[in-house]
Amino acid sequence: MAEEQHDNAAKQPTADRPTTDKATVDHAAADDTHILHRTLWYDTPEDVNDLAHKAELVVRHEWSQFQQVNNQGGRANCQGNWPTFHQMRLSQFLTWRLEMVDSYAEDLDDADATGRNLLTEKYARMMESTEPERYRTELEPHMPKLDPERIKAQEAVIKQQVAWARDFRERFPKLGQAMRVLTTSEDVIGTTSFETYLRGELCTYSNRTFAMYAQMIVDLTNAGVNLTEETLWLTVSLGGFSSLEEAEAAQ
After folding, report:
1. What is the pLDDT of residue 76?
2. What residue spans define the domains of the chain?
């Protein structure tokens, strides 16, 4: 498997974020501990706590599967970097609705029960772009088949998310430089783009989970919310920054 590269990157001091609008995620400090008060979809403590708890369990389940990914050339360094993995993945799942997290948790359970590893499949699918010949001969025969309508729907999601990521990188160029390269056309062995990574991940979702995810993208598009910005704000907040602007200045 090609070596893992994380979607986002941020330095990690300690701080909090001031309240902004309903499409943001607010934190406050109490006894030097970050407390999540609101997310994109929830603003009651019970729902926020439920989301945070379930997201944490999903990240830990993914980490367990990640430990079983066989990397070409031996174990990848990132497979021993729990803090970064935790920060990157948790920031993603905290932007999801509760039912999406529940659905993906079921996907992971189903994969365990049937001898699949969704993390292995994700990185294998990325190699369709980075190592196409090896993917075609060694990996594709073992990948679950997706029907053309599912692939078409995924590409619509990917197009929107690439546009969001491009917009974010233009407004926060230093943080953007710490992210993956943006498009599949930039892929080379050892460097996997945001677009290719996202495509690989979406392919691992069940039809149920993907339908929820695609609807979320439609809802955020209609609301004028940039999912990359929301995810990156959570990433830098988990790293201790009070704002994206502060994180940008620290790069």
Report:
1. 75
2. 45-250
